[in-house]
């Protein structure tokens, strides 16, 4: 019971932080402070937010272990400004760059980037572009991307979007 209470207190005491990305959009995040300068940045997956249970639980566990954690919404997701976009890995890597820069300026020692699902791919892309964080963790990231957006949406997806103004995305079962 004590552990559950400690996790709840850690989550409830998170500090709201606003960071501007390079487009001037406000990224909204929560900093779980643990009285150290070490920081792990947590990134959510596709159509998800900083409030997904996996990120909440990771942040609480890290803070309980004495490591600060920051979980945030990419632009166009959750509470952050901007429009949601399908794909946009580079924009998410740019958002992550803004977050890393902000906390570096605040004199935090960023010891890891952790991404779940699509966020896992964002941290990998970030690491390939910048070499300033040495530990990169990809939790359940997408791996079979050979088919690309055409494989997911169909060969004529752009024509359908232009004609109808939208596109329905279905899974392999047709749902």
Automatic annotation (TrEMBL):
Entry-linked Pfam families: Hydrolase_4
Cited InterPro entries: AB_hydrolase_fold (IPR029058), Hydrolase_4 (IPR022742)
Domain of life: Eukaryota
Organism: Aegilops tauschii subsp. strangulata (Goatgrass)
The Serine aminopeptidase S33 domain, residue ranges: 36-151
PANTHER family: ALPHA_BETA-HYDROLASES SUPERFAMILY PROTEIN, RE40534P-RELATED
Name of the protein: Serine aminopeptidase S33 domain-containing protein
């Amino acid at each position: 019971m004590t552990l559950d209470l400690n996790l709840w207190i850690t989550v409830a005491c998170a500090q709201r932080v606003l960071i501007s990305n390079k487009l001037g959009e406000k990224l909204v995040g929560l900093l779980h402070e643990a009285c150290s300068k070490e920081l792990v940045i947590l990134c959510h997956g596709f159509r998800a937010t900083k409030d997904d249970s996996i990120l909440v639980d990771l942040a609480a566990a890290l803070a309980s272990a004495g490591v600060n954690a920051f979980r945030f919404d990419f632009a166009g997701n959750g509470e952050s400004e901007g429009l949601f976009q399908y794909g946009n890995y580079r924009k998410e890597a740019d958002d992550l760059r803004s977050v890393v820069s902000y906390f570096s300026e605040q004199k935090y020692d960023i010891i890891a980037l952790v991404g779940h699902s699509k966020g896992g791919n964002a941290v990998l892309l970030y690491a390939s572009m910048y070499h300033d964080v040495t530990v990169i963790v990809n939790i359940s990231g997408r791996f079979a991307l050979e088919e690309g957006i055409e494989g997911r949406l169909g060969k004529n997806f752009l024509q359908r979007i232009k004609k109808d103004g939208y596109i329905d995305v279905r899974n392999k079962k047709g749902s």
